[in-house]
Amino acid sequence: MLVIVCYDVNTETKAGRRRLRRVAKVCESTGQRVQKSVFECQVNLMQFETLERSLLAEIDPTEDNLRLYRLPDSRGSEVREHGTFRATDFNGPLVL
């Protein structure tokens, strides 16, 4: 399934800036950055649950915001891209 991870971490304090870096590292280890605080992750259900637990361990729910959008393959999800960034197609052919 394709998962869209969006976050907004309060960076007014030094602790907030550390949380922001840790949240980004968790997302970078699982998916690809498509905007500054938005990642696309191609995962199975177990990986999704692990990702969610890891992110919840990093944020402060009283100051930060985390949103995870699950787009199951069975729905035939479609992503339309506009602008200069082009995401990697994980299901396309691998060209070396």
TrEMBL record:
Group of enzyme by EC: hydrolase
Cofactor list: Mg(2+)
One Pfam family here: CRISPR_Cas2
SUPFAM superfamilies: TTP0101/SSO1404-like (SSF143430)
UniProt entry keywords in alphabetical sequence: Antiviral defense, Endonuclease, Hydrolase, Magnesium, Metal-binding, Nuclease
Binding residues annotated for Mg(2+), in chain numbering: 8
GO molecular function, one term: hydrolase activity
Enzyme Commission code(s) on record: 3.1.-.-
GO BP term (any one): maintenance of CRISPR repeat elements
InterPro entries: CRISPR_associated_Cas2 (IPR021127), Virulence_VapD/CRISPR_Cas2 (IPR019199)
Subunit record text: Homodimer, forms a heterotetramer with a Cas1 homodimer.
Protein function: CRISPR (clustered regularly interspaced short palindromic repeat), is an adaptive immune system that provides protection against mobile genetic elements (viruses, transposable elements and conjugative plasmids). CRISPR clusters contain sequences complementary to antecedent mobile elements and target invading nucleic acids. CRISPR clusters are transcribed and processed into CRISPR RNA (crRNA). Functions as a ssRNA-specific endoribonuclease. Involved in the integration of spacer DNA into the CRISPR cassette.
Family from the record: Belongs to the CRISPR-associated endoribonuclease Cas2 protein family.
UniProt protein name: CRISPR-associated endoribonuclease Cas2
Organism: Zoogloea ramigera
Taxonomic classification: Bacteria, Pseudomonadati, Pseudomonadota, Betaproteobacteria, Rhodocyclales
Gene that this sequence comes from: cas2-1
